[in-house]
Amino acid sequence: MTRLQMLSFFCVLALGALTLSAAPLPAPAQAQSAAQTAEQSTQTPETGAEENSKESGEKVFNAQTTKLANGLQIVVVSNHRAPVVTHMVWYKVGAADEIPGKSGIAHFMEHLMFKGSEVIGGDDLKPGEFSEIIRALGGQDNAFTAQDYTAYFQSISKDHLERVMRMEAGRMRHMTLPPDEVLSERQVILEERRQRTDNDPRGRFAEQMEAAAFPNNPYGTPVIGWLHEMEQLTREDAATFHKRWYAPNNAILVVSGDVEAQDVFTLADKIYGSIPARDVPERHRPRSPVFNSLTSVTLEDPSIREPVVQTLYRAPSLRQDPETSYALEVLAEIMGGGPTSRLYRMLVIEKKIATGAGMTYKNPAWDDSEIWISATPTPGQTLGVLETAIKEELRKVVEHGITQIELDDAKTRMQDEAIYARDSLTGPAMVIGSYLASGASLDDVEHWPDRIRQVTIKQVREAAKRYLNPDEPGPHPPVTGYLLPKIDQMQEDGK
Amino acid sequence: MTHTLTETALRSVRLFTLAILALCAALFAPAAQAKEPVLDIQVITSDKGITAWLVEDHSIPVISFQFAFQGAGAALDPENKQGLAQMASNTMDEGAGDLKAQDFQRELRNLVISLGFTASRDHFAGSLKTLSKNKERAFELLKLAVNEPRFDKDPVERMSKANQSRIRSSLSDPDWIAARLMNDVAFAGHPYALNSGGTLSTLNAITPADLKAFHKARLGRNNVMVAVSGDITPEEVRIRLDELFGDLPEASLTPPADLTVQNSGKTFVYERDMPQTLIEIMQPGIDTHDPDYHAAQVMNFILGSSGFGSRLTTEIREKRGLTYGIYSTFYNLDHLFGFTVSTSTKNENVPEMLSLIQKEFQTMLSDNVSKKELEDAKSYLIGSLPLSLTSTDKIAGLLLSLQLNGRLANYLELRENAIESVSVKDVRRVAERILTPENFTTVLVGKPEGLDNATPIKKIPNAE
């Protein structure tokens, strides 16, 4: 809860991504060079060029991109501040691409990628050795899994980029997976589930809200997986998953830092270029049926002392409907972006019925995106009172839209935020990777400020009317959740 | 309204600032040879004698300006006003000069200026981050917040409620509970044991008058330390220093006593119905200015600070699958040097987990580390430094923490030499000096099975 609520563009990982370990870091060294003959594909860098004359503003990151003959897309963001690089591989596969009954396999797979793999032009890595080598080279590594993507990254001195590439490409090509490692790592992910979800009523609450909001759609299944299915995951499941999805033509390599694009392209061609393309299935995402009754989730737990009301709306993602998506980003900024936003001002400052209130629009996503509205009552206020006040604010924006001043101020802020986005090594790679892996383009990232600048009052109001109208829910009605203290029965009887 | 989860600081420090912690080390190393500096740090002193460290970088139009009032933190809060420093940090940016709370916040938001304050146990800190084009107004607003905070009744009440809400939410968060209990037992009898984030009742007792008194007493031109990085010149910094802090009074603060970890050898359990138990362990650590401090960093890297490859992670997560994460960390305050281990495991595995941790400590005490472990640790501790220098914020943050830890401006070079010179023998010696596996202070939250000597804790102290 930092004060400057970062805009959705810059907190793409805020919701739902699980990391391999809470603290990154990695170790040993054995030299490996070996000339690996790669099929040389000549490629000319495309700069994500954008001919559209409406796109006036400068690009956010000035990234360079190309594609290898085997289909691997490469994006490079040069930043010469410190002699380091972040090297990331994003696979266009996440928990939402799992086969029914195998929930958690995408994330389990991510863990197992550290359990032994090939190296391009070097000796195989033993379990754990990947991270150990990175660490001994003074680098840090980690990985994470979300509904729409799985990513692996290392931040390290630029001198070691080639070595890191040989290792990362090696585990794209083949992982060795000793059977005894699979069982102990399955215990680790079960402990991870306990730590993140089962120990914490708030974690269980969010999981149930998602499940209710996405019937028959994989977003209703948690990234970590359902406990009873996780317990059954096998080595075979992991091997099948790797074979099915981990191909160069289903991946994006993003390198940011103290490098030049052409050098990275050449190096990547030499190393990743040796891995043949494979057929990768289309992403198959079963759709939710049309429902018209409203759903609510109530969780009462004895450890809860502070109730919360949350509403989860489904809304289009950038990939599905760009115009609406940009309008919703602006709307979320006006309604829920920090202490001067509409919801905070009305519920917390003026009516004094809440201690906190906010709204976020999650972006990007392959399928439907999510809007979350939440509020915490001041003592003595019921969740019903908050819910009514929130609906009132939504009705206002549905009926009257936003003002020109609100729109202009929001746009200015969002444009300026984009400048801060450059002030980071890993941040640009995170934004670019998550957008591309979710079906958006590099142009969408680079010209984000322009796209926001083009949003109109009418578009914002239309988006609100269509997706946030409390009186006319669409085909996927929102889910409202109530997290409440469980009143001790004995205590109540005694009253 | 920076609602920092003060009580979870202990755990999150471990998770996110390993590199920085490792840097906050002391030094008794051979004087630095002429080596290219890691960072070009300029030390600037204003006309009124206020000092700042600056790393100039005009490649991005961003300025990060961070500062701390040393010794002005929550440890000085009276017991019946726990949360005073926290409340000041939440309200100093809620209106200043002629600007009321919403006006002040609206200006920050529209100019995309990040301006806020935080209170730790030891220090009261502030930070400003702005685009160069908005810097004039940004520094004006900061000057107002530092010199003329309004502490209006309305925002004070609002922040008090927000803090109380945070506490009630935290009461269902096992991480927070474990950290709260550890602070209470490990620092028993000392101001550090109190709840720096306030309690439900003490927050009610904090008035605008208290906050004004806090501001007057604790924020002085003599106890402020400043760190700046980004698109700004030394000449401008020199002028800003006096504009911002030159009119503050001299602060005269009485620091709390030094302390060592209390309740050693004891295990405390807060029972809660959940499938997994959180484990927090603390024992005495090492002075940041001790000649063995860098050897201790190396030792800790091998033992458990590094995650993958560390002995604790290898033995407990990788080989046995008993946890998702286990880390050891030096936990340093101005008046206490601690060493902690944090992890969690299924309730039935708690006794096994505790004995495995003890065993790894014992091994570190009784056997030499391998040459390879030593070299890998040194290589990481030295080689990863540039990863802490990749953004304007990170650089300013590092400069501030170095100053708060009493380092010299060439510390990063000295540190590199000191780490390079650590030997297997040094690691062994420091392990023998520090590690006390028989005398852990242990806090468990959950429903651990198979423990018979644990003291139950029924009520979370200094929360309500």
Q: How does this model look, in words?
A:
- The complex is a heterodimer of chains A (495) and B (464).
- With 495 residues, chain A is an alpha+beta fold.
- Chain A folds into two domains: 3-274, Cytochrome Bc1 Complex, Chain A, domain 1; 295-492, Cytochrome Bc1 Complex, Chain A, domain 1 (2-Layer Sandwich).
- Helices cover 38% and strands 18% of the residues of chain A.
- In chain A, strands 1-7-8-4-9-3-2 form a seven-stranded mixed sheet, sandwiched between helices. A five-stranded mixed sheet of chain A has the order 10-14-11-13-12, with helices on both faces. Chain A has a two-stranded antiparallel sheet with strand order 5-6.
- The two termini of chain A are 38 Å apart.
- Chain B has two domains: 5-31 and 258-456, 2-Layer Sandwich (Cytochrome Bc1 Complex, Chain A, domain 1); 42-245, Cytochrome Bc1 Complex, Chain A, domain 1 (2-Layer Sandwich), CATH 3.30.830.10.
- Chain B has 17 helices and twelve strands.
- In chain B, the strands form two sheets. In chain B, strands 1-2-6-3-5-4 form a six-stranded mixed sheet, sandwiched between helices. In chain B, strands 9-10-8-11-7-12 form a six-stranded mixed sheet.
- In chain B, a hairpin with a 4-residue loop joins β4 and β5.
- In chain B, α5 (135-147) runs parallel beside α10 (234-245), α11 crosses α14 (371-383) and α13 crosses α17.
- The longest helix of chain B has 18 residues, at 153-170.
- The model of chain B is unreliable at 1-34 (pLDDT under 50).
- Classes of the chains: A alpha+beta (495), B alpha+beta (464).
- The interface between A and B is large, with 79 and 79 residues.
